[in-house]
Write a structure and sequence with these properties.
By secondary structure, this protein is α+β, with helices and mostly antiparallel strands. It is built from four helices and six strands, in the order E-E-E-H-H-E-E-H-H-E. Helix 2 packs across helix 3.
Length: about 140
């Protein structure tokens, strides 16, 4: 089993405060976040940005693995994940993660890509962690 650790610190109240994340191996990466960067378009990142990054990275690796398992030789898998944070009667929640991926793999058909792209969304551990969240996948072949 592999364990990963991140640290978050928040100072001040919600409206005027600021926090920081740190994660990764030493010396690690540090990012700041504020109410604006989380709920609006302010400078910095928010927790959902990190979830989107994790989902995009995990999904790209899962799809690359499935392609290889099917005898394909992927040259690259580039994925963008957009995580939707909204508010409902129960408060704030992540409601969706939209994955858009572009695959460079000579000889791969769109039909096979579509099948494997859907499978990768089921295999990706971050997708599993987002159980109950609507996950959509759009996959295209590079150059098409």
């Amino acid at each position: 089993m592999t364990n990963k650790t991140a640290r978050a610190k928040w100072s001040g109240d919600l409206d005027s405060g600021q926090g920081s994340f740190s994660y990764g191996h030493e010396p690690g990466v540090s990012e700041t976040y504020t109410k604006e960067s989380r709920f609006e378009e302010g400078k910095g990142v928010g927790p959902e940005d990190l979830i989107a990054a994790a989902h995009a990275g995990c999904y790209s690796m899962a799809l690359s693995h499935l392609l290889n398992e099917e005898g394909e030789k992927p040259q690259g898998v580039a994925t963008t994940a957009t995580v939707a944070l909204g508010e409902d009667d129960e408060g704030f929640a992540i409601s969706a993660s939209e994955l858009k991926t572009e695959v460079s793999c000579p000889g791969l058909t769109q039909e096979k890509l579509d099948r494997l792209a859907a499978g990768a969304a089921q295999e990706c551990p971050v997708s599993k962690a987002l159980a109950g969240v609507e996950i959509s996948v759009e996959a295209v072949l590079a150059g098409s």
